[in-house]
Amino acid sequence: MSPGLSSNSTRHSTAVVLLALAIGNAAQPDLLAEEGKASAPRAAAGADLFQPGVIPRIAIQIQPQDLESLRHQARQFVPATVREGGIAFEEVGVHLKGSTGSFQGIDAKPGLTLDFARFHRSQRFHELRRIHLNNSVEDPAFVNELIGGELFRAAGVPAPRATRAWVALNGRTLGLYVLKEGFTEDFLGASFGSGDGNLYDTDWGHDVDQQMKRNLGRGQKAGQPDLDALAAAAQEPDPDRRWQRLAALLDLDRFLSFMALEVMFCHRDGYSLARNNFRIYHDPGANRLVFLPAGMDQLLGKADLPWRPQMAGVIARAVMELPEGRRQYTERFAALFARYFEVGALTNRVNELVAEVRPLLRGDDLGRVVREAGEVCGRLVRRQAFLEAALKQPEPARTELPAGVARLGTWFKVDAPRGGRMELVRDALGRQSLLIRAGPATAASWRAVVLLKKGRYRFEGRARVAAVQPLPYGQHQGAALRVSGQTRASKGLVGDSAWQPLAAEFEVGAETTETELICELRATRGEAWFDFDSLRLVRRD
């Protein structure tokens, strides 16, 4: 059998022009209200701030001793004076924010949290208690957070609103920032009708089976029994019973949309794929837990991210392990893709956001934003094309292993290298191979998806390489076999080699699990061949 290769095609669907909505206004009609879900019960504070084209100028003044404090204790609040629109806000709590990729010190271009009610409980900024100023180091186009939030909100999943701001600190111009509202009682009240429920974040633990930090809530003073119950439901071995237990504790409708959008727009630093950048709110009205997106500055980083990937999040994995969960996720993903991934509307929205900040930027700064926005538009086009092709691939049937062995015949390309090539080739003896010829920076692979029942397996085959120079970075190098979501068990082939046997052993813990098998090459030059007829799956128990 020849490998099945993905190809681009034209999609004919009636797409809603999502981004023509009144941007970020929580009082706008909820698109899902048309489908029987009630819209937010009251308008959010700060509606005047999150309007198209509104870019506030914010000047922050911090005393020398408090600047010194932030140099040593970046996360500790210090008082500051904040001025905007002719209004001075005194004793505003300020601390630095950001993670490994985006954190910068107070003397550079720091990310900042501004808590206007920290020292004066009644003080508000456009009726908001707290805002975040993101330096957008990992989103140099300054658009991802805005577009990501608009998409989630349109699909019925609450997300903080965002705009841009022009910021100065102690008379020093810091420049353009992304301004986001905080996860406060105001945000929760506008989204759910009540801000009294428990709100958890990832300061301590990164999933429901760990101890998470409770930021808000008027319920129990210690522990997290609501999360503990959800974690226990996710471990239920009986599929029907697990689905029932999850549905009793989790807003499954919103969670399906949450997962689908995280994957669709490649939020690889979010919950589903990385157990990072999310919040969980216990909605007291519905008595259900709701997952909320956060930290969306790195969207669209991988155009060919599979649309049914290996999930990292405990609850995402628990849903996708169930036949009913996979079925509903598949339906939801296709529906949201058809409705919201309208590439013309999305790229137009990127261009609108760039146009709004043009008057503020000059020279290299403007050129950088325009160039990066063009890259975002290109990634949107490539992502749409990949998903159009991927969604047309047939649903994988459960892989049967008579006598404990199955041949692997249907393969697709991922991250085809620029300046290289990938194709099915034959040598002089008629042997078929999956070829990857590296370009200058290649992390390419051939992949096959199999549906497996619980058990222990080995993915094996033969490969050879010629003149392979490994990448100077990353955990995996050269040519090898691997299973998605797992690290390689052995080093990859580099330099030159004759045909060699390779193998990757793994275990499937759920009764029926979709697994992605990978023949990959990570290199700056050279070629790798994977013997097509030797690629097979072996059951080990």
Characterization of this structure:
This protein is of the alpha+beta class. The protein folds into three domains: 31-185, no CATH class; 196-340, no CATH class; 402-539, Jelly Rolls (Sandwich), CATH 2.60.120.260. Helix content is 25%, strand content 30%. It is built from eleven helices and 19 strands. The strands form three sheets. Strands 12, 13, 14, 15, 16, 17, 18 and 19 form an eight-stranded antiparallel sheet that branches. A seven-stranded mixed β-barrel has the order 1-2-3-4-5-7-6. A four-stranded antiparallel sheet has the order 9-8-10-11. A hairpin with a 4-residue loop joins β10 and β11 (288-293). α4 runs antiparallel to α5, α6 (252-264) crosses α9 and α10 runs antiparallel to α11 (363-391). The longest helix has 29 residues, at 363-391. The chain is globular, with a radius of gyration of 25 Å. The model is unreliable at 1-42 (pLDDT under 50).
